[in-house]
Automatic annotation (TrEMBL):
SUPFAM superfamilies, alphabetized: Porins
Source taxon at top rank: Bacteria
Major localisation: membrane
Membrane association type: Multi-pass membrane protein
Record's subcellular location: Cell outer membrane
Region (Disordered): 225-244
Family: Belongs to the TonB-dependent receptor family.
Protein name per UniProt: TonB-dependent receptor plug domain-containing protein
One Gene Ontology term, aspect cellular component: cell outer membrane
Lineage, top ranks: Bacteria, Pseudomonadati, Pseudomonadota, Gammaproteobacteria, Pseudomonadales
Leader sequence residues: 1-36
Amino acid sequence: MRPVAGRQRSHHPAPWRWPRKATLATVLVASSGASAETPTPSPEDAVSLPTLLITAPVQNPGGLDDTGAGETVFDQTYVEQFGQADGTLDGVLKLVPGLQFGEDSESVEGLTELRPQSVSISGGRFYENQFVLDGLSNSNRLDPASDGDGSGIHGVAGHEQSLFLDAGVIDRLAVYDANVPAAYGGFTGGVVDATTRRAGDEPEGRVRVSGTHAGWTRFHVLTRDWDPDTQTEPPEPPDSPDFKRYRASATYATPLADGLGLLASLSESYASTPELTLDQTRNRIQRNRNLLFKLSSDVGGAGTLDLTATWAPYESEGFIENVRDSDYTLSGGGYGLKAGYEHLGAHLEQSLDLGWTRSDSSREAPNGYFPWENTRSRQWGLEADVGLSREGGYGDLDMVEDATSLGYSLRTLPVAWGDVDLHHEAGVDARHSRSWFRRDDTLYVYDDAVINPDVQCRGYTTDCVQEEQYFSSRRVYQADDVTVALNEIGLYGETTVTWRRLTGTLGLRYDYNDFLRNHDLAWRSRARFDVFGDGRTQLMAGLNRYYGAPLLSYKLREARAPYYTEYRSTEQNIVTDWERAAGQGDYRYRFDGLKTPYSDEVALGLSQALFGGTLTLKLVRRDNRDEFSRTTTETQTDGYRYYLMNNEGSSDYRGISLGWNGVYGQTLVNIHGTWSETETRNADYDDPVDATASSEYVWYRGKRIKYGELEALREDYNRPLVIQVAVSHRFSEAWSGTVSGRYRGGYDAIVETSRTVDGELVDTGNGEVVRESLEVYEDERRRATLLFDASLEHRYPIGDTELVAGVEVRNLLNDRVYTVSDGDSGIEPGRQLWLTLGLDF
């Protein structure tokens, strides 16, 4: 969470304005002015002059800020030129050195995923970033690392952002990967800070419709290797997916009075993917809507007040594959209200933000899961050749977070003391969050169906079929309603001293929350040296510590009731009543005495003016310690086994990036390359790390070793070499286009397989000796990829309105993306076409 202090460097963002046309005569009069001696031209003297396109200067995103902070700032022009037809900011984020997308971003699933793609910044995990929207946190604290399709027992598919905003409302995007100012806290990765647009001095509007579908997409269909020695038929190739996806948006901004303006934006994204289940084709559907109103007003000539209301619900309709009557609906996103005030005085700049958001991660689904054996009345699994005849789902869940946030910052304008310029920055941010987990009805998940043609169900019609079969065990997840609260506060201060060609910043940030109850003090220090005094060659250095944020999902897990198991049998073919098992060792969570994860950073850099642009070289080292992981106890005296969270996780990041950005009139050029390596001892906060428990041993390269000693290179977000080249050019008033290429180097990953092997004989703790089962890990080669994208846009004027048509081609050369491992069956997306139509008025 962060107040607007980091954003205030831009002062008042420029009013939202698309490129407008002006005649050369207008430009000449505006630039030269009119005097009494200037004769008034007669109608006979009038000449027809060509129309010129007048646009605001484009800010070069490269280089360093005035204190050496590692920020990359994209103004509206970059968002417009490199933003994608699907309404995401992925194309802009790819311009940032040191930022990596996950492997799934290029997969078939990515074709229809409406939620923002996850990113890693400077080696941090994707959920360890801080997302800021208009000065307040947009980070989700409800189990962001939860994956899957959302049909699980306890969870709904999580995401690291609370609200999924359309890129069409973004005016400015800043990404921090190193030397992050003290105004930002609650992260060990990086910061993504977005500012929404404001209305300008003239009414302006925009309408866009864009889309794609399977007919505009090429696929690479891959079939697993066939071993003729098995005497089986060669495997059938998988079918190419059929899908469709579109985005529609409308935005209008208008002044309401002098110094008062309103912006309204509405957008919807939709994706539909047919999938085969039980020999029937059914659609998975996603919808993401955005509705934003922003009222902006000048206050007293030196202040600006913004009032923003946002509604951004996400919805997904799906089903559990090959399970009958398993339809479910997921709800995500949420809504929020925010008031922001900025004041620029004679000696002091102040910012105040107050906001409230509600984010939702909920599910509606059938209550009760039944894996039936195939019998006379239960044989749809046999007919579809999928094994058991499964039906049902895991019931309704509500996971909601309410958050009220307050941020205040002040910044003094520089004061000269001889050769020394001095200014200070300080602020406070506070956040109160309430989260709840609600399961309205008790959920029964059945196991171990027993076929008995003589069974008498005795009224048990739900989990027993007369004279066919019955279930002998079930897990019981009780109806539950848990509410937890979290209070956080952060205080920070920085002092920046400029002496001749040297600028140095020393800062501290203090954070406290009432869950972990740790007093975290992080130093922030950075320096910038202007080598020749002309601003062309600058050196940067920094030494910083960042503390992570607590997750409310930890508190919810600790307070949640554990499941228990019930068993039954038959007596003379009559089912007995369900009885609760004793001493079954059900799981509970415990989070006592945890430290706050932190990251220590050393950063060095160079910024050099070159060829009319800016070359930036940066070296970043991160040592991440006290990361959350967990271990598992044996059954305790209270009958439970415990997941004990600990701080035994750790990771290390080393990165070198070299980038160049140039702005040549109507041409934008971005070139960068990053070499990096991330080593980690645990994948996320649910990954076990324990140096002593025998249950945490694995099998790797023919040896039994401790999981914590695996020293695995991170499986995802860890391409060792990434090179990006992107060019955008406006050819004329009518035509503009972009082209980009991205190389991602191959690497060897250590991955978990689905196999197990027998290990050693171990004592279970109660005197029983059993042979352990070890999960098998193995090396896997991830192939390098080289992909090119291109887009072209044409504008056709119709009076004061412009008709806009665009085409975007992804994976232009139809290359493989290598998301399917060698020798496996699967489908990879190839060339894809997006079309866009719109109006600007």
